[in-house]
Design a protein that fits this description.
It is built from twelve helices and five strands. It has 263 residues and is α/β, with parallel strands linked by helices. It has two domains: 61 residues; 140 residues, Ribonuclease H-like superfamily/Ribonuclease H (Nucleotidyltransferase, domain 5, 2-Layer Sandwich). The longest helix is centred in the N-terminal third of the chain and has 26 residues.
Length: 263
């Protein structure tokens, strides 16, 4: 292909026509790199960066399946990663997710949900649902107040495992604690959402699910701006609680809410 006779826009469209970055051959990249136009050279550099990123993601996919590979050698096949979102907010539910990945269907780019942009989280959210088994557990603010957030989180995790519709053989939980009152072999992994793909996937499902819930609740209680803060204790949110008091979605066992509930 004679790229010299093509405009930069045409070259860019040609490159974007590839369904996967790996399908762009090195010969094409070399031709673009030696083009006399700076714009074409930039396209070549962009392709190189994207291919390098994909290589790293592939390496991380295998690396972050290490614990699961070890468990599979011991005879465990259905291994669920579990994480939660919403322990710290002043309002809304705590949400947990359990995810069993199919290791034959790689999902590249998995990591702690907090390290991803909202756009990347939403893209991965859809991919995880397409390629994996997913369970979600939700526990309301009223139950959080009744049980405390620690026990409510465990309840959300148990509900997520039940929602899988299958019986996993082993659970990998993000954090320092295993789940009480559940009849499964399990292991807690500190920083698991950065170390184990299944836990990373669970963190993304839990985060996106909870954010969507808070976005919907914003329309009922716009004064607290849940659309932006997702129920976390931002300065704006705390000032709203102090000015008008809490709403039924707030966690009244939390100090700042309890102090202003008579407003």
């Amino acid at each position: 292909m004679n790229f010299e006779k093509m405009t930069i826009s045409e070259i860019n469209n040609f490159v974007e026509g590839f369904s996967e970055i790996e399908k762009i051959e090195n010969d094409i990249i070399k031709k673009l790199s030696t083009d006399y136009r700076k714009g074409v050279k930039k396209i070549a550099q962009k392709i190189k960066r994207a291919k390098k990123k994909k290589e790293i993601q592939k390496e991380n996919w295998h690396k972050q399946n290490g614990i699961i590979y070890q468990l599979q050698k011991k005879g465990f096949q259905m291994i669920a990663g579990i994480d939660e979102a919403g322990r710290g907010p002043l309002a809304g539910p705590v949400v947990s997710s359990a995810v069993v990945l199919d290791l034959n269907k790689p999902i590249l780019g998995l990591t702690d949900s907090k390290k991803l942009s909202s756009k990347a989280r939403e893209r991965l959210f859809k991919t995880i649902f397409d390629k994996a088994r997913v369970g979600i557990g939700i526990v309301s603010n009223t139950i959080i107040d009744r049980l405390n957030i620690h026990q409510a989180t465990f309840l959300a995790m148990r509900r997520a495992v039940e929602d899988l519709q299958i019986s996993p053989e082993f659970l990998l939980i993000d954090g320092s604690y295993t789940i009480p009152d559940i009849d499964y072999k399990q292991r807690a992994i500190v920083g698991g959402d950065l170390k184990v793909n299944a836990i990373s996937a669970a963190s993304i499902i839990a985060k996106v699910t909870r954010d969507c819930i808070m976005d919907e609740l914003h329309s009922s209680y716009p004064s607290y701006n849940f659309l932006s803060n997702k129920g976390y204790g931002t300065q704006e949110h705390i000032e709203a609680i102090k000015d008008i008091g809490p709403c039924p979605l707030h966690r009244f066992s939390y100090k700042i809410v309890k102090e202003n509930k008579e407003k």
